[in-house]
What does this fold into?
Amino acid sequence: MNERVRSLLQPLNLAGLFTLVAVGMAFRWMPGHLLPWAIALLATYAFLLLSCEIWPRQAWLRPVQLTLMPIIALTLVWLDPRPSVAPVLLVVWTAVMATATPLRITALAVVVADTGFWLVLRDDGHRAPLTVVMIHIGFQLFAALCAWYAVSAERARDRLALVNADLLATRALLADSARDNERLRVARELHDVAGHKLTAMTLNLRALAADPAFAGRPEIAIAQQLSTELLSDIRGIVQAMRDERGLDLGTALRALAAPMPRPSLRLHVAQSVHVTDPATAEAVLRLVQEALTNSARHADADIVQVSLDCEGDRLRIRVEDDGQVRGAIREGNGLSGMRERVVAAGGQLAFGRSERGSLRIDASLPA
It folds into this structure.
């Protein structure tokens, strides 16, 4: 299913639309000359309710949405202030407000909106405006708390998923490091034990071949040849085991990015990349992790491209997303921490803009 359609079909949106349909059905008791205005206002309210899901990248749209929704609701109450269902729209707005702003701001906005609600009822001559407002405040508080707890649970789930991904990535690096250490230990054992004894055996066979009593025996010559070939094979195996050491950065980075719905990771690791130092691998892991977080929070990116390559004895890392950098590039806590980590690992880091205006990160570390 398309991501935008899935976003529109979230439970909060469906509940809000169901409420709007019920409010619209109640308009049939409204005076006829006010009905077109009421329908137009309700349609505008519905559009605002879904607008941020339709255009999620428009940062200016959320403040407009949260400002106009209560104004439309109060306008509908003003058009027909007798007991009606229009104040329910304030409850829907409160739920939306609680998902987008801190509870303190939500509470302040609700106080302002309900003060306007009370003034409308009082000016219409309602016998108990405060009682009606208090009843709706109760519904608004309930909606705000439900929405806030739902958002808090979702954020806690996302944080837990990121922590779990971090643990999986770190575990992958530790497993690779443990395998490398074990491979190195076996290589040393082969070289020190088997290689030493084969060398001794070769020397003894050479001494036997020089003895006149065994000179010319084909068995001695074959044994010499086999021991020499076996010693050469063991040395080749030991060298190959040393050369094959390296941490699987690709698996670790993919595990790190897996739980993030946006942005997605496009990773390219050149065949020449051969990292054996866990500290260097950890620096690469944290650099990409911070880049993914930065692209999600500030650039609203959908894709982050990460490429790793080797130039001589340096590991080159380039990170670039498809978002947009707004204003000058300023090193906040995230980017400053990224630089400090890379420099501590003996590397260099540079920030710049790509041709399409997105943030580009170029780093180099000792390979």
Notes: The mean pLDDT is 79. Residues 175-243 form one domain. DSSP finds eleven helices and five strands in the chain.
